[in-house]
Amino acid sequence: MEYKLTWQEYNKALKKDRLMGLRCEDCGKFTCPPMMVCAECVSTNLKVVQMSGRGKVVSFTTSYIAGEGRENELPYTIVLVELEEGPWIMGNLVGVDPKRVSMDVMGRSVELGYRVYPGDKFSSGDMARPAFSLRD
Fold first, then answer.
1. Fold of 54-134
2. Strand (E) positions, 66-126?
3. Residue ranges per domain, the chain?
């Protein structure tokens, strides 16, 4: 079985401001980030699609402890976003001082961008990660 959308392709698309996902041809649900099977019905009948990158914040946390290589970014806020197409994905919240983030971000509309982070000893190099900005 092969991945319809590999992490390398997903990463390359993020660096071009495109969020790629998978639409199940059997149940119609979207899966993002990429997986080998549909997150809803476990079908392998998937089609690669470009997603809107828009959604709403459903949860967040602000980190004061960094992962390896990210010490100079502290603090940073991570949001869990429900995309318009349905899947929930995590990314950094940008354009807002992490020390000022409060429950007011819950339910707010966001739009996707990206940030490139350096690799660490466990990765294969630099990777793009979702970064969301408030829309309203």
1. OB fold (Dihydrolipoamide Acetyltransferase, E2P) (2.40.50)
2. 76-83, 88-93, 109-117
3. 7-51, 54-134
Give dist(CA 31, CA 46) in Å, integer: 9
Pairing of strands 30-31, 19-24: antiparallel
Contact 58, 23 (CB under 8 A): no
pTM metric for this prediction? 0.86
| pLDDT tens digits, one per residue of 50-67 | 999 999 999 999 999 977
C-alpha distances out from residue 13 to 16, 64, 84, Å: 5, 29, 19
H or E, element range at 14: helix 7-14
Q: Which residue has the tokens 């707010």?
A: 108
**Residues 6 or more apart whose Cβ sits within 8 Å of residue 119:** 69, 125, 126, 127
Tell me the two tokens of residue 8. Answer: 């390398």
